[in-house]
């Protein structure tokens, strides 16, 4: 969700790691997930991007009529330490905020960003950057303890994206089993099925397009040269709910570059996605693939 230098900075917070690319010979770790009911931020740039980012002024002026009227939002972390939330609210409809990372890291700006967005009435979702080599239950605990008293209005988010070699040494089934365990733990703790943040390449190579998660809402990361282009969906999902289309956006109220996302639906659809006790995956009814 940010530059490569940010990956290094974020990983330095964790101390030395034995970094793990998926689907190679596994150590005996997580059990594979159960059969699917019907049929995954440290903050690196998504591995599937590689396209030229577009900035806010460009996308609004150059996009089609449909894109011009899409609801837009941002995601922030300690890389955006200063945010004027009153100003931000005039140009965005939602925000995702980094909460935690691995088993013990808490984003140093989470508390101030979380409360600041709440004060101005901006719908919020918190995200956790997943590390497959670190204990899953401890990661669940690290994430959910910051959400139990105030879980936010949007679904909690599990950020799964391969970087460096962290996923090396695990099979797709093992990685899917870890993410399933995380999903179930979060849903048990906060009462909502988490949304998956990923890109089609990571999902294909590291999770083998596992079908278990296709009932989870999807926040898709893919940077496009023009917002009229359509992002590539991971196999199994029929639509994206949020699409992070740029990591170099400019938004009034945030003095540095910021990630930007579209919501795939109307204002009424977004309202339905807010915390009403339902799974977010079924709340978007007018979205397009």
From TrEMBL:
GO molecular function: lysozyme activity
GO terms of biological process kind: carbohydrate catabolic process; cell wall macromolecule catabolic process; peptidoglycan catabolic process
Sorted UniProt keywords: Glycosidase, Hydrolase, Signal
SUPFAM superfamilies hit by this protein: (Trans)glycosidases
Region (Disordered): 26-73
SMART domains: Glyco_25
Residue stretches of biased makeup (Polar residues): 58-70
UniProt KW Signal keyword: yes
Biased composition (Low complexity): 37-51
Entry keyword Cell cycle: no
PANTHER family: LYSOZYME
Similarity comment: Belongs to the glycosyl hydrolase 25 family.
Record protein name field: Uncharacterized protein
Native organism: Pyxidicoccus fallax
């Amino acid at each position: 969700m940010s530059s490569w230098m940010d990956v290094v900075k974020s990983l330095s917070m964790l101390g030395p790691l034995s970094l793990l690319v998926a689907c190679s010979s596994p150590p005996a770790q997580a059990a594979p997930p159960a059969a699917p009911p019907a049929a995954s931020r440290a903050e690196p740039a998504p591995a599937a991007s590689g396209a030229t980012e577009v900035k806010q002024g460009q996308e609004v002026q150059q996009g089609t009529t449909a894109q011009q009227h899409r609801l837009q939002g941002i995601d922030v972390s300690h890389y955006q330490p200063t945010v004027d939330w009153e100003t931000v609210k005039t140009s965005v409809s939602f925000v995702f905020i980094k909460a935690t990372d691995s088993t013990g890291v808490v984003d140093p700006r989470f508390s101030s960003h979380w409360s600041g967005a709440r004060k101005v009435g901006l719908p919020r979702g918190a995200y956790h950057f997943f590390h497959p080599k670190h204990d899953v239950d401890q990661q669940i605990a690290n994430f959910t303890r910051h959400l139990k008293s105030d879980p936010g209005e949007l679904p909690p988010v599990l950020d799964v994206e391969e970087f460096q070699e962290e996923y090396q040494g695990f099979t797709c089934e093992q990685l899917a089993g870890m993410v399933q365990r995380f999903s179930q733990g979060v849903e048990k703790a906060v009462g909502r099925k988490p949304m998956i943040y990923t890109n089609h390449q990571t999902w294909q190579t590291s999770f083998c397009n596992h079908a278990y998660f296709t009932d989870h809402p999807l926040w898709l990361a893919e940077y496009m040269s023009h917002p009229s282009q359509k992002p590539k969906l991971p196999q199994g999902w029929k639509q994206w709910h949020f699409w992070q289309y740029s990591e170099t956006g400019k938004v009034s109220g945030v003095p540095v570059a910021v990630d930007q996302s579209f919501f795939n639906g109307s204002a009424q659809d977004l309202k339905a996605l807010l915390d009403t006790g339902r799974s977010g995956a079924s709340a978007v009814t007018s979205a397009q693939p």
